[in-house]
């Protein structure tokens, strides 16, 4: 045996981190967000394979950090593995910029508030600075990526077809859409071959962000919700289709408008997506295997309860108490769409939604959600759920009265919850103490002129505006 050359090691590892144009854009956008940017401009040429430029108005890179800014595993975001339990940034591995350098040519232009002017740095394949010159750009950082995959001919060939290129551009837009929703105060512009193809302006909150991205017709068919669980600590919020909504407005044949975030990070969570699809299918009487509902779900849990270091792109995470999160999501879905029909005996494992450690039992008196023991050693999940209906004049975004339905402190008692499927009857008073529905009037504060909002989002093509 012999050790591989350092250059070969860097190329092998980098090509796993940087797999496509959208992976480059994602890494650079997250660097911008970690630098507190409120405006990001993305410019692509030849679908990003000739040039990718990401410019932000963030804090910039300090002069002292420039020599190591693209050296792998140098980062300002964490100091040790223990910091992962308190992670508040998108990035933490210190390998994105270095990996991009290994598969392309990179220029970095940056200026902090303390600098007199910006400087452009040219980097080599190892991430070392090879030259620098003054620049006219203002505060923030601009990363320019040229000739992506120049030294990976097979991968470059893979993306050589027109269809693949257009798919990649669509993925970039979907990525920006996700960040545009979870970051309402973020302004984003996407330009391809000098033509602006998508943009979003700064707005006040998630509701307005969803309106600017999804449109008022879709949002008029959505209902906002919030749920807070005391222990384990889980906070849910977002928008789901109304039970009586038109599925042609609130669903697609793909999951591109099914947005799931954990601690503000866009993630892929198949179990949660399947759970929502099943309840939505029941409410709309549509085939759940064909449709994906349009929704926005933001899940907030303590940083120590999430492991984000699973895949290079950080889109898959592990949850410390996944069953409790699934149960909290199901509580919201039950409140909005009603319980699922009773499972046919012998077919309980045919559901494509819940895992083997979470079931829904149908009794004569009530539906009881059952989950396994949580990390605390007990099975109590205290939850407060509220739904705020969007007013009928949402298309004009006028203030109006909204109904709020509260499930006050639902408690699933450890005495009545079991981790295996059995026939035990559970009374309504035991399973749902104080779970009466209360209607509360609430003034909505989001007065906006929707004519302005509709101009905030420009789709790539007419088909993408279906959502």
UniProtKB/TrEMBL annotation:
KW DNA damage (keyword) present: yes
Family, as annotated: Belongs to the DNA mismatch repair MutL/HexB family.
InterPro entries per the UniProt record, alphabetical: DNA_mismatch_repair_CS (IPR014762), DNA_mismatch_S5_2-like (IPR013507), HATPase_C_sf (IPR036890), MutL/Mlh/PMS (IPR002099), MutL/Mlh/Pms-like (IPR038973), Ribosomal_Su5_D2-typ_SF (IPR020568), Ribsml_uS5_D2-typ_fold_subgr (IPR014721)
Transmembrane regions listed in the UniProt entry: none
Keyword Ribonucleoprotein among record annotations: no
Keywords: DNA damage
Lineage: Eukaryota, Metazoa, Chordata, Craniata, Vertebrata
UniProt domain DNA mismatch repair protein S5: residue ranges: 210-338
GO (cellular component) term, any one: MutLalpha complex
GO biological process terms held by the UniProt record: mismatch repair
Region (Disordered): 424-467
Protein name: PMS1 protein
GO MF annotations, alphabetized: ATP binding; ATP hydrolysis activity; ATP-dependent DNA damage sensor activity; mismatched DNA binding
